[in-house]
């Protein structure tokens, strides 16, 4: 992992191995939000498989995943719920399974996926000291990103690993990030350089197979921040006052009113 400054992640206890996993909701999330962690990972886990209601995209995604050169790739292929953006953006509500979903049918699928996700991740993460995954607000607010974060943190107490997440955000997820900003959730942070060469190489594979889901004009930042969440609750800090990376500003031609960096409001005294 490339890093600049900060304190490196602490190892788990001597009784545990030092495995490192990158766990993301969908293929291509690993290079958008966690490329800095890929080089040192010994396994990469994709949680969801076929896109909901899009069979052509499902076939393209399977071809792309089969062609990826990623370490210890684990493809869980849990069907997507179709709940990704079925959320009240102005007043998002967190639930034990992730987020409150507004569409009843999608909510049923989404909630049913959570125990499947936890059960499938348990053996995949059993020997890990560090797990890198989505942040609590799901980067740009995707409900399945939030669900994966919840599933990983649900297993943290049982398996004893340290959780890491990055500082990407979007206008759609800003209300949720702001709402969660006061909750203590990190114990250390690292400023790191995204692995742009690796990310671009993998992006070419996704695009070649028609499975790239993000803008073709995405520009990786020069630096991102990783936040480590230790098992112990004592000593955790809130996200309030922390600098975020706005994904709409990370384009070759970003809107002039969207800066790449914005800061969560500090806690009021």
From TrEMBL:
Which portions of the sequence form the region Disordered? 1-20
Could you tell me what this protein is called?
A: GlcNAc-PI de-N-acetylase
What is the originating organism of this protein? Nitrospirillum amazonense
